[in-house]
Amino acid sequence: MTNVLLLGAGFTADERARLTETFDSVSAAQAEDVAKIDASTRAGIKAVAFKGHMPLGAAIMDQLAGLGVIANFGVGYDAIDVTAASARGIKVTNTPDVLNDDVADLAVAMLLAQSRNMIVGDARARTGLWAKEGELPLNRKASGSSVGIVGLGRIGREIADRLAAFKMDIHYSSRSEKQTPGWTYHSDVVSLASAVDFLVIALVGGAETEKHVSAEAIAALGPRGVVVNISRGTTVDEAALLDALESGAIAGAGLDVFMNEPNIDPRFAALDNVVLQPHQGSGTVETRTAMAVLQHDNIAAFLAGQDLLTPVN
Amino acid sequence: MTNVLLLGAGFTADERARLTETFDSVSAAQAEDVAKIDASTRAGIKAVAFKGHMPLGAAIMDQLAGLGVIANFGVGYDAIDVTAASARGIKVTNTPDVLNDDVADLAVAMLLAQSRNMIVGDARARTGLWAKEGELPLNRKASGSSVGIVGLGRIGREIADRLAAFKMDIHYSSRSEKQTPGWTYHSDVVSLASAVDFLVIALVGGAETEKHVSAEAIAALGPRGVVVNISRGTTVDEAALLDALESGAIAGAGLDVFMNEPNIDPRFAALDNVVLQPHQGSGTVETRTAMAVLQHDNIAAFLAGQDLLTPVN
């Protein structure tokens, strides 16, 4: 009997196959497609395999009377209304840790690429402009500079561990001070931003962290400041960020996440002081496979009545 | 009396000013301009401040009968015929160490950018292709992979120290085994290439290392192999590298150095599996300033009859 719903348009063929080969399943690409599943099938759904960023709230949950688990593909589950899920006795799982390395790699790579103007550099070498106009204008040293990690969770820690090898002076902000190798703790993000050149945002998404990196924090970063964001577009005041990037109030940014992805603000396209990436933090074959396996295994555990591997509620 | 010759077309205004404000100097942009300096001025030249990659050999040295030191701007002095200099009692200095961090940063950045397809990623986010065609195809995890450093000198060591923070399995080749934290030594580059996915070339340039990364080494790297070169274009068999990149015999490359810079082989421009940079390894304000100071100070030491700071012969 069909008991798993694949919800979301973003599953790859491999990810879909991993689920459909094990489970008796039905699919809904969009939220409104759930209602189109016939009522008896819907009533049998015990698990949702969710991938994407569409809001998954009470309206969908209430169409699935037998739902017991929502297994999210990704560590960030801010699209899911966990309060509504908990109120209905629905468990939520995510895919933590398996993507930490990739996300941290991309954060460091964007910091270095912005600092060394590598997007412009590639074009200069590739198009022959190097021969015509000479060297790239001098850019900026990354090693030995100061960095602030906003949110020293598991991903933030991986980023800091890498940047320590670049001899950076590491500062961080978080709800409470952590055990670190002598890194400098700031209880608020404005203090953090005023102390460093590079500000790397590694927060969880959701309402609590909305615009946590505020206009005030961006202003505190100053004209040598660079914002790197691999968390969620919501965690930074994007309008203030765009203003600061356009005016030179800060030096630049490296951004993997945006408001309204993939329809990002066209103002970003005109900036020559940013490195942009299409939300590919976990986008490697190795890591997406590990995420798919973990999503699958959470559902399998639930259906077998076993403990969930990575519950969030 | 004029006793310093600024030789090379690449001095920036700041670099030129640093030299001309201290020293009584004359300039020659190209090799053939040396002969155009009047004979009595030429006879008074005691020091050459050299910047660039034009060959500086016996023909130039023999036009400067009073020359005592050639102070190179850069760590790599393969453009200077040191044997000819030594035979004439001319000392050569370079600018080591002050650029190690920047060059290592760029090596790591190119490795990550190639692995994560960041040049294509930036264009996808920037042009709106993300909204039209969706996510970037999955790429490849960098952390935890295996890397081989060809030449574990001071720059190679800085690269390895950084990549260790990415949990990479570190191998290296060099003339002799070094003290390392348990990294794997290979006495030859083909053995090294066959053991790793990423091959990072950190050799000195010059005749001894010409095509050290041979066609055989490139073949040994295999279809998941990526070549990163921040040394000199001469250190790799570039024709074999281009063939391998075009055929898929290796996966890709990140290259800051080429044969015939800046007129690089147009075959590079057509490749979508490479990250190209216009020889900007040391190209930051901070590091180029430190290099200019060191070049200046070597000349000042020589003219004052003091020990050279960073002699190479």
TrEMBL record, chains A, B:
<feature type="domain" description="D-isomer specific 2-hydroxyacid dehydrogenase catalytic">
    <location>
        <begin position="42"/>
        <end position="313"/>
    </location>
</feature>
<comment type="similarity">
    <text>Belongs to the D-isomer specific 2-hydroxyacid dehydrogenase family.</text>
</comment>
<dbReference type="GO" id="GO:0005829">
    <property type="term" value="C:cytosol"/>
</dbReference>
<dbReference type="Pfam" id="PF00389">
    <property type="entry name" value="2-Hacid_dh"/>
</dbReference>
<keyword id="KW-0520">NAD</keyword>
<dbReference type="InterPro" id="IPR006139">
    <property type="entry name" value="D-isomer_2_OHA_DH_cat_dom"/>
</dbReference>
<dbReference type="InterPro" id="IPR006140">
    <property type="entry name" value="D-isomer_DH_NAD-bd"/>
</dbReference>
<dbReference type="GO" id="GO:0030267">
    <property type="term" value="F:glyoxylate reductase (NADPH) activity"/>
</dbReference>
<keyword id="KW-0521">NADP</keyword>
<keyword id="KW-0560">Oxidoreductase</keyword>
<dbReference type="GO" id="GO:0051287">
    <property type="term" value="F:NAD binding"/>
</dbReference>
<dbReference type="InterPro" id="IPR036291">
    <property type="entry name" value="NAD(P)-bd_dom_sf"/>
</dbReference>
<dbReference type="GO" id="GO:0016618">
    <property type="term" value="F:hydroxypyruvate reductase [NAD(P)H] activity"/>
</dbReference>
<dbReference type="Pfam" id="PF02826">
    <property type="entry name" value="2-Hacid_dh_C"/>
</dbReference>
<feature type="domain" description="D-isomer specific 2-hydroxyacid dehydrogenase NAD-binding">
    <location>
        <begin position="108"/>
        <end position="281"/>
    </location>
</feature>
<keyword id="KW-0670">Pyruvate</keyword>
<dbReference type="InterPro" id="IPR050223">
    <property type="entry name" value="D-isomer_2-hydroxyacid_DH"/>
</dbReference>
<protein>
    <submittedName>
        <fullName>Glyoxylate/hydroxypyruvate reductase B</fullName>
        <ecNumber>1.1.1.79</ecNumber>
    </submittedName>
</protein>
